Amino acid sequence: MKKTLGAIVLSAMSGSVFAELIVENAHIRESIPGAPNSAAFMILKNTSAQDVVLTSATSELARATELHNHINDNGVMRMREVSEIVVPAGQSVQLKPGGMHVMFMGLATPLKQGEQGSFTLVDQSGQKYPVQAPVKKIKMQMKHDHQGDHKGEHKH
Amino acid sequence: MKRLLIGSLAVVVAFVLGFWGSNQLPEDARGFELTRSDGAQINSFDALKGQPYLITFGYTYCPDVCPTTLAYLAGVLQAYQSAEGEEIQSVFVSVDPERDTPDKLGQYVEYFDSSIWGVTGTEAQLGQVKQTYSIFFEKVQGKDPDNYLIDHSAGILVMDSKHRLSGVIREGDSLEQAIATIQNAQ
User: Fold this and answer.
1) Residues whose CB falls within 8 Å of the CB of residue B11, separated by 6 or more in sequence, listed in order
2) Cβ A34–B104 below 8 Å, yes or no?
3) Could you report the per-residue pLDDT of A111-140, keeping only the tens digit for each?
4) E-strand spans in A74-155?
5) Which of A102, A117, B47, B100 is deepest in the core (most CB within 10 A)?
6) CATH number (domain holding residue B175)
């Protein structure tokens, strides 16, 4: 029994893969000087036959961690906390800039590229999905990107 | 009743026209007077010397859209300079003077491109900006009083040398499209 429990914990820890929810390409945005907030983005893949309904997120990185979405209302961006993010059975949901994200409000310390940050997603049933993600500098979208990251993080 | 209806219609039309509202103002009413992050009082007519400029609105507590817009703007500025061999001034207006001190604002814009002016002002000055550029911003109270959010107009406005709106650059635009929009404003 004890052995089984150990195996479950181990599988939950390896690469943010859970029985039903796979977290891919997770990254946290490097904090910008002068700004106390940041956000995390990722792809959530639900491999199970049941919807996963995320209802909250927690982290030691900041004073408050929330699930947020953006609504583009006629050119006005309205960012709102959402009560849930639904990842339908067998489908993926992308948390990306300008859309849904995990928001960190009131960072304890500035986040620097190269660091790792961790946070936990929590679903309706209380199940926790710990995620570890690299901190990445925002891409400046240069035509010839010489100023971007030099650490081999480009994926072409 | 009919008059009321026409009145309401006019309001709706004005709203839909949105950004273009600024062109209806007399020339001397356009532009802005705001404080730059280095403490300088900027009168846009004097400071921009009859040159076209780009202007966008946001606040430093904004974790997602503003950094994304400014990172995109930095790319546009660089692409424009390599294509045209000259710079175009860009202005980031903080609509959150309560929390965005000049110092913080300066550090914030510098991260993206040191040529961007970070400016903000009093509530009255920002109210004027709201009208001049026909933009929208509004505070939204969250659970934590210190961590309120602000809804605000997105996009980058391209203003011509007479401070008239010439076009709008949106983040989905390619750099080539963005450059063309700026060239149009000459």
Assistant:
1) none
2) yes
3) 999 999 999 999 999 999 999 999 999 987
4) 76-81, 85-87, 92-95, 101-107, 116-123, 128-136
5) A102
6) 3.40.30.10
